Structure formats: structure tokens, C-alpha cells
Prior knowledge:
By secondary structure, this protein is mainly alpha-helical. Helix content is 73%, strand content 0%. Helix 1 runs antiparallel to helix 2. Mean pLDDT is 85; it is low at 1-10.
Amino acid sequence: MVRLDNPYAFNRPRPIHFSTIIILFVIAYLFKKFTIFIFAYQFTIPIMLVLLIGYIFDRSILSKNMFASGEFPAPGRIYFFIVPILLSALFVSVTKFFNLTPHYYLLFSAQESMNRGELFVLLIVIAIPATEIVFRGHFQFLYSHLFGKKAALVASIITYVLFLFLFTNNVLVMSYATAMGILFSYISYRESSILPSIIAHEIIVLVLFIFRF
Length: 213
């Protein structure tokens, strides 16, 4: 199982490692203000750039031990499959019951102007793994050295929500983001691994594509 204190077990993070948190917000703001990319790319590219910068600062950010080692949570721990499905069902139910526009899907697809195949590959193959590595792996680990592991969980949730807030202040979208941030951060905290949180994140995105909530 991958532990949050594993990458720097014998070498605590240096101040420069924490700069990636600020860099992410600066890059995201610049992309939002000065580029014409649709949201899916405005969301993904800053995260990928921070992943690259973090790798330059410290190669262990993309090491095998950062997100997937030989050990995997016991097969009996299927809650990170079941809970995302239940959460997705709640999202879909609320959207349908109140006859709400599927804000979350439309935000990522830019009013469905983006090809669904392109969006699917971008999210599943690139955006989701990168997001979990950066927020639930790199940032949550860094926060754990400042505040302790439990407080780091909360700090990573807040960082994730604030990052999305740069792009939208829609209440429904922010509610989705908060709920998912709590789930993914808790799973990575409980399992000391971001692999289950990647699985949970991708399950929710699959439901997003099926029901377009």
C-alpha cells in the first residue's frame, strides 16, 4: 500500500516543493484570463504543468511508490467502488428531480462543443490521474508535513474546491466538486494510496458521461 509519508520517508519536503501549490493557481488564473481554451483544457493543462514542475523539483512525485506499489487494498475493501456509484446516483437523482441543467457535464464539454470521445480520453487518461497525483498525492502529502495527516485531508479538499472556483461560481457545480473532493481525499487518506481515489474518480466520470449530470 502506498503511504503518504513514503516518497520523502528520509527526506522531508523542502520549501521549494510547497511553491507548486501557488504555481498551480497562478497558471490556472492566467489560462482562464488570457487563453481561449475550453474548461476541460483550462482545468487539465495547469495541473499537468504543475506535475511537470513538481517532477523537476523532485523526481519522486511520479515514482511508482507515489501512486501505485505492489500492494493494493484488500479485495474486500470495495467501498471505493460502491460509494462513488452511490454518490453519482445522488447527483443524477438531484439533477433529474429538480429538473436541473446538467451543469457539471456542460462545464467540461463547453456546452457540448467538445467531441465526447476527445473529452472522455482527456479526462480518463490524463486529467483524472494527474488530478489525483497532484491534489491527493503531492499536495495532501505536503500539507501533512505542515498540519498533520488529518488536517492535510481538509486542506487538500479546500485547495481542490478553490481551484475549481477559479473557473466557475455555480453553486451546483461547487457542490459536486466539494462532495467529490471529500470522497477522493478521504479514500486516499484511509487507504494511504491514491490508486483507489483514481478508481473512484473515474467511476464518477463514467456516470457523468452516461447520465450527463
